[in-house]
Give the backbone structure.
Amino acid sequence: MSIALSTPLRRSRSDTLLLLLAAHVVLWTAFCLLYLAPSDLPNDMTEAFSWAQEMPLGTYKHPPFYAWVVHAWFSLLPTADWAFYLLSSVNAAIGLAAVWTIAGRYLCGPARLAAVLLLETLPFATIQSLNFNANSVLLSLWPLVMQLFLRVFDRRDLASAAALGLVAAAAMLSKYYSGIILVCCLAAALAHPDRRRFFASPAPYVAIAVFAAAMAPHVLWHLHAAIGPLQYMASKSHSDALRILAKAGLFVAGCFAVHALLGAALAWLWRRGRTAAPEDRPAVPSTGDRRALAIFALGPLLLTVAIALAFKVKIVTQFAIPIFSLSPLAAIVCLRLAVDRAALRRLALLAGIGGLLLLSAAPFAGAWTQRHDIEHAAEPRRIVAERVTALWRQQVGTKLAIVAGSESYALGATFYSPDHPTDFTAFAPAYAPWIDADRLRRGGLAVICLTDDDWCLGEAAKYQGLDTWRTEFGLAKRMRGVTGRPFDFVVVFVKPGQTLPLEPIRLRPF
């Protein structure tokens, strides 16, 4: 990180920003390869890949946009862990670039760069961004929505309005939680002194029309889907008011806790700039800009907690991934912190040192996670996928087309198998509507169960009486001289050309 900014700011600010973004992508992709190499991809990412193969208009859990992104990405890059982690880093970098653009309304020079650089102190933009899922994709989409809204409000041109409608739809089509940022846009428009001119122009209505048109196919899909994101969201509600209150309290406490490093950096800037002249401090923004910044910086947090309490939804800190993109910017503007070139270089140096320390520790931390199976790091998903594919080709003689079973291994097979089969989620067409009787008859089915997964073994047993092949084996992952704990598997192949029962015996809990 320091390499990007240690170059004296003789370069244009945009060049320096590009170096900062490149440093972010290189650092965090390298960190993934060093720290997460012993681990196979998390379920969220292999799940997105499995959906990406089908390009659905919706899934039982989330809207489809981030799966579409995965589809586009892997149509250009090889199916490899490093490519997926690169996507995660690039996604976060796009959000940083959008924050830079927003910061240009309020700050200039080193202070504007600091509003982006200080985001590196928040795990939302770094560690938590590395798992590309319905939450982390919003790291790029929410700042883009805010940026385009501010542009449309200023210019009221129809091209920007159409772009706002499309990006807002992309955010909603990634997770319905994005309705929060759209409410914040409406609130910022209503709170602006120039709101009459804005609402008298065609721009907001063009944005709404484009948004509605982009959302329409998914809405129609949801109306006809057996199970969709609304039902999944409802399953996460809870009737215990005390538990919901406790979860909300932990969520807020966690959000404050992860701002500790940012708070220390801001405190240092405040002490350092106490004697700065007024002209060296950020200018006081206009009333409209000041209100918009306050709404975008605080509104998502307040709305998240309010909705959780009102609808009794259990919330976790992962929900906070996209909501603090403007925290450093708001702090610099509101506290009128003086940030000169020397301060920016010091921050960049500290960021660079921190990055190098992380990279140095990453291989050892990764080996420790594998040895102790932290976050399922010891699960041999890649090895199982390759073993099952080889056995299928040997026993059946066709391409492995459909898999089901214990969640981690069925999803892992979709990515790690060279045949990239589709996942028959929970053995139920309601969860995998792209699977029907004809597709099962043509492709057959490979069932991968952990020996202690009673649900999976029960589902596999219903294929008794058909032409099947069964085997058992144990595997342990070994990497960098470290051997993880062993896992035992039961694998059942239901050969093609047969009619398979479609309804599950018992749905897997989600």
Remarks:
- The chain is about 60% helix and 5% strand.
- The longest strand covers residues 468-475.
- The radius of gyration is 25 Å.
